[in-house]
Amino acid sequence: MKNVESYITQLLYTHDCVIVPDLGGFFTVRTDAKHDANTHRFKAPGKRPAFNPALQHNDGLLIGNIAREADCSYEEAKEHVNSFIGVVKNALSSGEGVSLSGLGTLTQNTDNKPVFTPDESVNYDTDTFALESFHALPVEKENSVTAAIPVKPPVLESEKKLSQTHPPEQAPKKVKKEQKSYRLAAAAVALLIIAGGYLGWVISSTGLIRPNSNFEVADLNPFHEKVCDLYEPRKSVPLFLQSEWKLDQHPLTLHKQYGKLELTHNEGFIPVKLPHKKSTTKPVDARFHVIAGAFKSKQNAEAFIRLVNQKGFNGLILDRNNSLYRVSATQKSSRSEANKALREIRSTINKEAWVLTK
C-alpha cells in the first residue's frame, strides 16, 4: 500500500479539496503567471497546494479512494490513514517539521498551531502542468558602429571604351520570361482541377443526367439551398424484439412473447436487444433504508454511491439532513430484510452504517 501523500496528490489533480480526518484539508489555489524583475525568472500559471487545519470532517473521499486503489477493505484503508495522522502529529508535537512529498512542509508555531509551507514547484492544473518556470537574461543594446562607405575606384578611359563596345548580356530578362511561363502553366493546371471537381459534383449530386428528375438551373450552384421532397409516410410491418437472439429461431414464433415496433415495408425482420439499465430509485414500498454515509459535498456523495454500487447494492441519495447528503446503500420493505442487509454492509462498506425508518 502506497503512502498517504501519494493518494492525496493523485486526488488533487481531479478534486479541489482532499480532507485528512482529524488533521486538516489540502486544497489547491490558482496562481497567475509571474515575473521576478530581480532574478529575471518567469513562473508559469497553475494550481499550488495549500492547507487548512479547520477542515477535519471525514467526507470519505480519501479513505474510499485508498480502498479502491489498494484493493482492500474500508477499515484497512482507514487504519492506514490513522497511522499516517499519528506520525504527523507526533512529529509536530516534538517540534520537528514533516516533509510531505508533492505537497510541502508542515511545522508547528509557538501557539501549537500547524504552519504549512507549500512546494512551489508542484502544479496541479492539468491544463498548464507541463509549463515550466525559466530564466531569461535581459537583452543588452549593442553599440552602433558606423558602417564604412565603400569608395569606388576610378574608371580608366580604356575601360569606358571597352564597356561601350561590348554591352552586358541580357540573361536576367530571359529568366523573368521563364518564371512567368511557369506561373501561367500552374494557373492553368489549377483551373483544370477545379473544373474537373465541379463537373464531378454536377454529375453525382444533381439530376442533370438522370431521367425523370426535377432538375433546375439553380441546382448547378453548389451554394444554392436545395428544397427536399415532401415527406411520405411509410408503410409499417411488425418488428419483434427479443432479449436473447438465436440464429435458428424464426421470428413468427416470437410474436406472442415480445412487443413490436414499426418498420419500413420490405426491410425484413431485425432483432433488437434492449440494454438493461439498473434502477437507482428507491422502491415505492421501501420504508427501511440502510444509511452507509453522509456527506456535505454532493460530488463526494455521488462518488461514494459508485463505490456502493460496485459492491452490488442499490446506492442513492435519500435526502439532505442538516446540510449533509445521506446515502442509502439499500432499501427494504421489512425490518428483518433491512437488518440482514445492514450486517453485510457493515462488513463490506462501513461498520458505522445504520437503519433509517421512513
What does this structure look like?
This protein is of the alpha+beta class and 358 residues long. The chain contains seven helices and 15 strands. The chain has helices at residues 4-12, 61-70, 74-93, 157-165, 171-205, 298-310, 335-348, and strands at 17-20, 24-31, 34-36, 41-43, 46-52, 98-100, 104-108, 114-118, 134-135, 236-240, 260-264, 288-295, 316-321, 324-332, 354-357. The protein has a four-stranded antiparallel β-sheet. A three-stranded antiparallel β-sheet has the order 1-2-5, covered by helices on one side. Helix 2 (61-70) packs across helix 3.
What's the helical proportion of residues?
Answer: 25-40%
Amino- and carboxy-terminal Cα gap: 40 Å
| Overall spatial form | flat
Q: Give the radius of gyration.
A: 39 Å
Which CATH class of one domain is shown?
Few Secondary Structures
CATH architecture descriptor text of one domain:
Irregular
- Strand pairing plus helix content: what structural class? alpha+beta
Number of E strands: 15
Order of helices and strands: HEEEEEHHEEEEHHEEEHEEHE
Mean pLDDT: 76
- Put simply, the count of helices is 7
β-strand percent reads: 15-25%
- Poorly predicted runs: 236-269, 272-279
Strand order in the sheet with the most strands: 13-14-12-15
Largest sheet: 4 strands, antiparallel
CATH topology name of one domain:
HU Protein, Chain A
CATH superfamily of one domain: IHF-like DNA-binding proteins
